Amino acid sequence: MSRSLIPALVMLTAMTAATCALGAAESVAPVGAERVYQPFPKSVQAAASSTHAVASNNEDASAESALLDAVNRSRAQAGLAAIRMDDSLRDAARLHAQRMVATKSLEHQFPGEPALLQRIADVSTLPLDRAGENIANVTCLSDGHNLLMNSPPHRRNILDPNFNVVGMAAIWSQGRLYIVQDFAHAMPRYSVSQADKLVSGAVEEARQNGGLTGLTGKMPAQLNDAACSLAAEDHPNARLIAASYPDRKIVTYTQSQPEVLPPGALRLLADPNLRQFAVGSCYARNANYPAGIYWVAILLY
After folding, report:
1. Which residue in 250, 259, 254, 263 sits closest to 283, CA to CA?
2. Which of 84, 218, 287, 295 has its CB surrounded by the most CB atoms within 10 Å?
3. Who's near 193: CB < 8 A, 6+ residues apart?
4. How far apart are CA 175 and CA 271, in angstroms?
5. How far apart are CA 109 and CA 101, in angstroms?
């Protein structure tokens, strides 16, 4: 299990001549669904209700839209595609911003709060394979984007070419604007038959690339269910389904893009004696993959 967190960077903006005062910002590096992400929380300012999100009447939707516009201007200047606001990610960002307001602190994970991907998954049905977060507080909106762009970790999240969705939260409290930006990469969501077809196409391509004859596709009963059983066990171990398919070579794996075959599958597909194959797949969420991933089983014979 991989756990990683870029050291938080706290930075201050200079005082402006008018109404804008000091601001601070922190960033979490992008994390992938295939790397379980569990940041170690920093010390949190103690407060009686510090770990509980509270309803806020100070959410500033216009500020959220302005922050999105600023992000997309910066992405356009860098030659990157625009990123779109997703309502479910905005809900996740707002819930976290409410916690920051309640504690008057900047934290990426409060005690009792799920890690980033899990708290996004708790309110979103989007299939995601990576996410990153920026947080900040400022005294005027115009400082927010500049503060984040002038910090390398935040800038990397804003200009990450792989991110295509974001949730922006902006909440005012005691003259300060608390900002949360939850970036993510949303994957295509395939039906079982679509995922099976993608994997089958990858199998055929691998055989062609190896100069080998094509394989005949088969559809053994309940192979998709067998792939789902791997998700239930939370382990893509071929031995878990081997008893149901004797005398078969079996490849099992997890992947956010089901058509990306692992090296082990490519090695087995190089066998010139193979004649047939079958594919089973299942899209599922569990504790290790809170935003979902494809579980795939390939039989070779």
Report:
1. 254
2. 295
3. none
4. 68
5. 14
**Residue in the structure block whose two tokens are 């995601």:** 128
Quickly tell me which residue has 């409410």 as its tokens: 98
pTM above 0.85, yes or no: no
* Phi, psi of 97, rounded to the nearest 5 degrees: -60, -35
Distance of alpha carbon 256 from alpha carbon 180, whole angstroms: 26
- Spell out the long-range contacts of 224-227 with Cβ–Cβ below 8 A and sequence spacing 24 or more: 224/192, 224/196, 224/280, 224/281, 224/282, 225/280, 225/282, 226/280, 226/297, 227/252, 227/280, 227/281, 227/282, 227/295, 227/296, 227/297
H or E stretch including 225?
A: helix 223-233
192-219 pLDDT tens trace: 999 999 999 999 999 999 999 999 998 8
What is the C-alpha separation between 284 and 252, in angstroms, rounded? Answer: 14
What's the confidence (pLDDT) of residue 78?
97
Greatest CA separation found in the chain?
77
Residues paired with 186 in a beta bridge: 128
